[in-house]
């Protein structure tokens, strides 16, 4: 009934007064617009239509003697998202996305669902204060409110991108590492004539979890930023500065239901970017962020209160003519630093996977693979976690919680050359880190991370108009720890990605891709309890694993945002562990995507 009321509301709004409507780009926004008032459509429609059909098969030693697991699964969906934007006046806009979805195999309405996927309103008050209520995307700094990228990929080949785009769309992942929340937001700015050029302020509050009216309280996240930009402080060097203050506070409302336990997580930081020098050829910036966190957790008579700090400081050098930038930073993130809105991961290993989560007569859980990371929506989430989420050290061990990973001290280095459309665009990332506090021992782990990516636009080299592109990505990660034999750690992983995209004729592309993972050695994965503390005896992890994921297919692009792709993906998993046998996964899928 709730969804029906939303549908009825927008239907009446469309019909009211015979309002005109037209199409517009799918950017979720119509404010402001350059069209004259009399030419602006008061109601606009756009959206997305998508069809996915996939056939997945499993085989291998893991299924020997298995009489339970189905060897073949066929599934899919048909959906239509209709985005409706109404602008009753120049300073107000409302929007909604209505979803119609039918599962593959559903007939005569079976498996059909209708829901409101998105609902929001926004506007401007007194030509100064912008507001937004309902569904919204929020991002601040990497240590406060930030949604860092998922692991398992360095430079994803185009052949795997269609599946990832589906995941990103379904989970509301957008550029800028934003996180989808529901609440209210205010923005306003000020201009100055001396020293300061301008100041921008924003604040928001959102509900990130509802109550069950029993033991689970409602959870809110609130925060804000104050950002300042100066005029030139030293004209000869073009010296100026950007700096800001950031605050995020996550809390449980213990008045909701009968909850007797709640969490308070407050994070306050100061960030800066000082342009020391800039001319036509070079620029040098001093940048960083520092701050602290505090966690309070109360359950009956138990009281937990802990705080910690972090420091991230570095230099960035820009050489403009060859378009080269180099950044070097020192990082120190305390063992007890906790920022719920910055450390919550995209992949939640606790979730049940959609395809073959458990196999064998004993229903043993299948290990995570690159096949799952590239396509399984069930693994992904945008929710906040009040404890550090589990991770797989084969894919990410140096910074499994992004830049805000706690208990890390060391150096980071980044170098980048070229733009996406240049002949060559390359990037190198490196990190040498160590633990600040040991886990289960006084010995400390040492981490080394090397990542490299390159895009080669072959058509630029041979002067072709059609798109001919090769992508490369490589990641090397090493974890070491000394001490007694029972304490020692030696885990090394290599991840290689290769992709080829060639346009045979206008709009018709051949796509090839490969991902290779090799992980060998041992590690101790920390077990996190309810107060975000590491148990004294972490779980032992051993790996002698090799995975190959192959992709081949074609794509026809009817126009921008409208395409059809048919592909085959195959995974060979050779996991050499006593409790796990080898398995293979093969999938043929069709995706028709239409944005309008």
Q: Would you kindly provide a written description of the structure presented here, covering whatever features stand out?
A:
The structure is a single chain. This protein has 596 residues and is mainly beta. The protein is 7% helix and 55% strand. It has helices spanning 2-15, 161-170, 340-343, 370-375, 458-462; strands at residues 21-22, 43-59, 72-89, 92-103, 112-125, 129-138, 179-191, 196-209, 218-230, 240-253, 261-278, 282-299, 302-319, 324-333, 358-359, 364-365, 408-417, 424-434, 446-457, 468-481, 489-505, 508-525, 539-559, 562-575, 583-595. The strands form 2 sheets. It has a 22-stranded antiparallel barrel. Strands 15-16 form a two-stranded antiparallel sheet. Strand 12 and strand 13 (302-319) form a beta hairpin. The longest helix has 14 residues, at 2-15.
Provide a compact summary of the structure.
This protein is mainly beta and 596 residues long. Helices cover 7% and strands 55% of the residues. It is globular, with a radius of gyration of 26 Å.
Structural class: mainly beta
* Helix percentage: under 10%
pLDDT < 50 runs, ≥5 residues: 1-34
Number of helices: 5
Silhouette: globular
Percent strand equals over 45%
| End-to-end separation | 28 Å
Largest sheet: 22 strands, antiparallel, barrel
Name a few traits of the molecule:
two-stranded antiparallel sheet, 7% helix, mainly beta, disordered N terminus, 596 residues, single chain, 5 helices, 22-stranded antiparallel barrel, 25 strands
């Amino acid at each position: 009934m709730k969804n029906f009321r939303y549908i009825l509301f927008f239907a009446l709004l469309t019909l009211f007064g015979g309002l005109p409507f037209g199409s517009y780009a799918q950017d979720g926004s119509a404010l402001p617009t350059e069209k004259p008032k009399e030419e602006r459509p008061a109601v606009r429609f756009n959206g997305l239509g998508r069809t996915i059909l996939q056939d997945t098969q499993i085989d291998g030693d893991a299924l020997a003697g298995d009489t339970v697991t189905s060897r073949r699964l066929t599934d899919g969906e048909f959906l239509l998202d209709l985005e409706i934007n109404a602008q009753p006046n120049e300073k107000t806009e409302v929007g909604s996305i209505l979803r119609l979805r039918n599962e593959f195999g559903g007939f005569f309405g079976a498996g059909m669902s209708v829901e409101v996927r998105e609902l929001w309103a926004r506007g401007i008050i007194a030509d100064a204060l912008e507001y937004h209520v309902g569904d919204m995307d929020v991002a601040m700094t990497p240590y406060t409110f930030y949604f860092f990228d998922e692991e398992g990929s360095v430079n994803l080949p185009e052949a795997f991108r269609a599946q990832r785009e589906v995941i990103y769309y379904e989970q509301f992942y957008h550029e800028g590492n934003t996180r989808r929340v529901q609440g209210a937001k205010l923005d306003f700015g000020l201009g100055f004539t001396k020293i300061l050029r301008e100041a921008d302020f924003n604040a928001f509050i959102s509900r990130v979890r509802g109550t069950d009216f029993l033991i689970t309280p409602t959870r809110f996240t609130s925060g804000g930023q104050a950002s300042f930009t100066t005029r030139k402080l030293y004209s000869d060097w073009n010296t100026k500065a950007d700096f800001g203050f950031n605050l995020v506070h996550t809390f449980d409302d213990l008045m909701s239901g009968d909850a007797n336990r709640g969490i308070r997580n407050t994070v306050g930081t100061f960030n800066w970017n000082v342009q020391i020098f800039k001319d036509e050829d070079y620029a040098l910036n001093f940048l960083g962020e520092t701050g602290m966190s505090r966690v309070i957790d109360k359950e009956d008579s138990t009281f937990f209160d802990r705080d910690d700090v972090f420091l991230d400081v570095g230099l960035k050098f820009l050489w403009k003519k060859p378009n080269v930038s180099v950044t070097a930073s020192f990082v120190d993130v305390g063992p007890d630093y906790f920022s719920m809105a910055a450390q919550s991961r995209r992949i939640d290993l606790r979730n049940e996977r959609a395809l073959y989560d458990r196999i064998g007569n004993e229903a043993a859980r299948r290990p995570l693979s690159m096949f799952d990371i590239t396509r399984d929506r069930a693994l992904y989430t945008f929710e906040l976690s009040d404890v550090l989420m589990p991770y797989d050290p084969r894919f990410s061990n140096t910074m499994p919680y992004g830049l805000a990973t706690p208990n890390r001290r060391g150096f980071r280095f980044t170098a980048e050359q070229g733009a996406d459309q240049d002949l060559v665009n390359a990037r190198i990332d490196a990190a040498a880190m160590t633990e600040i506090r040991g886990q289960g021992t006084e010995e400390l782990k040492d981490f080394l991370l090397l990542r490299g990516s390159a895009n080669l636009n072959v058509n630029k080299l041979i002067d072709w108009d059609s798109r001919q592109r090769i992508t490369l990505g490589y990641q090397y990660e090493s974890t070491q720890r000394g001490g007694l034999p029972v304490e020692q750690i030696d885990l090394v992983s290599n991840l290689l990605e290769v992709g080829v995209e060639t346009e045979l004729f206008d709009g018709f592309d051949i796509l090839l891709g490969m991902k290779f993972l090799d992980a060998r050695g041992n590690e101790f994965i920390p077990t996190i309890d309810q107060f975000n503390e590491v148990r004294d005896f972490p779980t032992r992890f051993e790996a002698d694993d090799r995975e190959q994921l192959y992709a081949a297919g074609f794509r026809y692009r009817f126009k921008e945002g409208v395409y059809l792709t048919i592909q085959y993906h195959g995974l060979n998993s050779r996991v050499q562990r006593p409790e796990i046998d080898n398995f293979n996964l093969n999938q043929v899928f069709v995706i028709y995507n239409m944005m309008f």
